[in-house]
Amino acid sequence: SNTTNLTHLHLGQSDLTQVPAGVLARGLARVETVEMMWTGVNTKQITELFMEISKDHSVVKHLHLNHDLSDVPADILATAVNKLETAGILTCEVTEEQTDKLFTDMRQKEQK
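Now predict its structure.
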């Protein structure tokens, strides 16, 4: 079956580095709440997840993670985070460009 009843997935302290980035991203995009605190993932996987969250078919509303996000393109990060209802970006490494883009997009969304 192509559907999942899963609405909340907690992946804390799991090593997911061997899971292909596209497979991981497409799977997680079907879950409303994704918790990835202290989860072993690489930049390619995180970037792919943010790209997937940005798409219309993503059902992710809540994402909690703590990773080095500094290599994720700012536009991809900002688009994905601004689609979420709650984003817990805790102890993450982010760049000034990423935070600027994130808050600029937030402000523009508010004005629409």
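The chain has a mean pLDDT of 93.
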